[in-house]
Specification:
Number of helices: 19
Helix content: 25-40%
Largest sheet: 4 strands, parallel
Distance between the termini: 44 Å
Strand content: 5-15%
Oligomer: single chain
């Protein structure tokens, strides 16, 4: 393929504009320092499990949690626990521990009700081995429950969601049905406090103890280096009906991700991202609606970036958490996600976390992950669990300082910071795409980094400069793209080369794709396209060889 040098396409360096724009979407950073945040945490583990204790100790060491704020309880290692067992072996001893340590101080509030009037902690972290859900107790009867919709007359719930209302224990709240979260959609952290009846609860858990233990390691690394990559949102294309609010929620979340500066992909088809979709370098994933992980998310390996948040809305997404193969929460963690959420039983759409609320608080308001997660839940004493380090705050750093740090360390993640500069600039319509091309390609790493070169190819195409776009994409392919990035670029390149009447180049690109990614999920489609192009080019021997490589398709059952 004859290609001119991309150096001749852009010259000059845009030094100032990018830095100005890095400040355009700067979070209101949480003023709590790391030590103070650690002092606001109580960690609970299962004392019958060595792995559970190890995770608790590891977390406490890294987050500088006082040793007197670590509590071991003798518990069943099963994920389920009965209501009486929950009350006697989890709720009661935690409450007694908090009162004894004076972490909760009870007194009369302004309404003369017994409540937490002083609290030195805001977070409760449950470790692998602590039960996940409270089972239905058919013996429980409450007169007030008759006022609820019949579908809500249940007392099964997640352990975590029950404990979120622990500060209100003296009020003897009803256990049948959900309870409104006073902190839902709050932008004021003062409302998310035990003195307001709310305790932030999350867990370090997952399919294995090793996965659970690593959640804090990955979170803290992302706090140092940033959470980078692409954002994916899988909608269902709903324009009306009772489930449309779900699509609206994800659409709002996608808008927030784009506003922050992520390269954002939104799928509006009823199906999930298909298996062959190039799901690359994922920092954020949110979508719905399938009972089991499938489609692009079932790829092996899945390209989750360090620190990634991944969530799939389904009624039973965390019905079993300690599994790598069932539902969604466990498999997402097994495939590398650092944070997820899920529901232990049917929550109904209104009872699931509002991901748009979560992302806006986490990315823009400086909330920790735990604060943002609690603010995203309309109902408590219900079904939601939050898995990951609740102190995790990858967006709270000063963006220019983080950029300088990555640049000084020669960390390849700096390429994503450059891409964010470009995205923010274009989002605000303050800088021309041509200036952003100068910014990308005049930087010292811009000509040898697949992430930046792919972005340059996108910008060139948008400017109608097809040859320059092709050149940028080819150079991206030649500069160590991730496997799924390679798939995306090659498929795009081949299509555009064919449209430019360059069938031989298109043939070469698709051949390269199968050479570099031999296990590509839709290899047959690529081979069929190669056969079509090869016949057009008169490549008889090559076509015969490709036909022989076609994988037989199993007959439909």
């Amino acid at each position: 393929m004859k290609l001119f040098s991309i150096r001749h396409a852009c010259a000059g360096f845009l030094s100032l504009v990018g830095w100005i724009l890095l400040f355009d979407v700067q979070v209101l950073a949480n003023t709590n320092d790391a030590v103070k945040l650690g002092q606001e945490v109580v960690v609970v583990y299962n004392s019958k499990s060595a792995a559970s204790k190890d995770i608790a100790t590891h977390y406490a060491e890294l987050r500088k949690i006082p040793s007197g704020q670590i509590l071991g309880l003798k518990l069943s290692e099963a994920e389920e626990i009965s209501r009486p067992e929950f009350d006697s072996s989890i709720k009661k001893p935690i409450l007694e521990f908090l009162e004894k340590k004076k972490l909760f101080v009870y007194g009369k509030n302004a309404q003369a009700e017994q409540s937490v009037v002083e609290s030195s902690i805001r977070y409760l972290v449950l470790c692998y081995g602590v039960p996940v859900k409270v089972t239905e107790d058919i013996l429980t009867k409450e007169i007030e429950a008759t006022k609820l919709m019949e579908s809500l007359r249940h007392n099964h719930a997640s352990v975590d969601s029950e404990l979120a209302l622990l500060p209100l224990a003296p009020k003897n709240l009803p256990i049948i049905g959900p309870i409104n979260n006073l902190g839902f959609a709050s932008t004021n952290l003062a409302t998310i406090n035990p003195t307001n009846g709310l305790l932030i609860v999350a867990r370090l858990d997952g399919p294995t103890p090793a996965i659970a233990r690593a959640l804090v390691d990955k979170a803290m690394l992302a706090e140092t280096e940033g959470l980078w990559g692409r954002a994916y949102f899988d909608l269902r294309g709903l324009t009306s009906g009772e489930y449309k609010p779900g699509d609206d929620m994800f659409r709002g979340a996608a808008a927030d991700a784009k506003k922050y500066g992520f390269d954002t992909v939104v799928d509006n088809q009823p199906e999930l991202f298909p298996t062959a979709f190039p799901f690359s370098q994922c920092a954020i994933y949110a979508g719905w609606y399938s009972s089991e992980m499938n489609g692009a998310l079932a790829q092996i390996p899945l390209e989750f970036m360090n620190g990634a948040f991944a969530y799939h809305l389904h009624s039973f997404s965390a019905n079993i958490l300690r599994t790598a193969n069932n539902h969604w929460a466990g498999p997402l963690l097994a495939k590398g996600a650092t944070v997820t959420m899920g529901c232990t039983e049917e929550p109904y759409l209104v009872g699931t976390p509002d991901i748009a609320v979560f992302l806006s608080r986490w990315m823009f308001l400086g909330f920790t992950m735990g604060e943002a997660a609690l603010a995203s839940q309309r109902w408590l004493s219900w079904q939601t669990i939050v898995v990951g380090d609740p102190l995790y705050s990858p967006f709270a750093q000063n963006a220019p300082k983080l950029h300088d740090y990555l640049d000084a360390e020669n960390n390849p993640l700096v390429s994503w910071s450059h891409v964010r500069v470009v995205n923010l600039s274009l989002n605000n319509n303050r800088v021309a795409p041509s200036d952003m091309l100068n910014y990308l390609l005049s930087h010292k790493v811009g000509l040898t980094n697949a992430v930046m070169l792919e972005k340059a190819g996108e910008l060139f195409f948008g400017e109608g400069k097809l040859k320059e776009s092709i050149t940028a994409y080819v150079q991206a392919v030649n500069n160590k793209p991730s496997p799924q990035q390679m798939v995306r670029i090659c498929l795009l390149l081949a299509k555009r080369l064919e449209n430019m009447d360059q069938p031989q180049d298109a043939f070469n690109v698709l051949s390269l794709l199968l050479e570099k990614i031999p296990n590509y999920a839709d290899a047959n489609t690529v081979r069929n396209k190669l056969i079509e192009l090869g016949m057009k080019l008169g490549l008889t021997k090559e076509v015969e060889k490709i036909r022989a490589e076609l994988t037989p398709v199993a007959p439909a059952k």
